[in-house]
Amino acid sequence: MNELLGFITRPTGQTDETHEDSNRPAREETVTEKVTCDLCGNEIKKERGDAEEVQVSHRTGSAFPDGGMGEEVSVDLCGECFDTKLIPWLQEQGAVPATREWDY
Ligand SMILES: [Zn+2]
Predict the structure, then answer these.
(1) DSSP SS3 for 67
(2) Which residues share a beta bridge with 63?
(3) Average pLDDT of every residue of the chain
(4) What residues are paired with 56 via a beta bridge?
(5) What confidence tier does 52 reach under pLDDT thresholds 50, 70, 90?
(6) What's the CA-to-centroid distance between 6 and ligand 1, angstroms?
(7) Would you say 9 and 1 are in contact if contact means Cβ atoms under 8 Å apart?
(8) How many CB atoms lie within 10 A of CB 86?
(9) How far is the CA of 104 from the centre of ligand 1 (A)?
(10) pLDDT greater than 50 at residue 66
(11) Taking Cα atoms as reference points, which of 51, 55, 59, 102 lies closest to residue 75?
């Protein structure tokens, strides 16, 4: 009992805190994660104000209004690889990609 209490209320002296600070730059490691294209390897950047988004994924499972679960298979593609590699390949297979304009 005493050992348990001693563990939970472990003293947090000044030396202990400075020790943790110097050993844990954890906040700096959780910065933005780079996403790279799975085909060309280039970083997929999105500049502020750009509308540039590629989604290639297949989601399966069970979905009901109160919940669901399943699996999603996806690849990260840059816009150029989507336009110059995936779309031409799909067209070779006979697919006709749809293009629509958007605004809001
Ligand atoms: Zn690419």
Answers:
(1) strand
(2) 68
(3) 81
(4) 75
(5) confident
(6) 56
(7) no
(8) 16
(9) 28
(10) yes
(11) 55
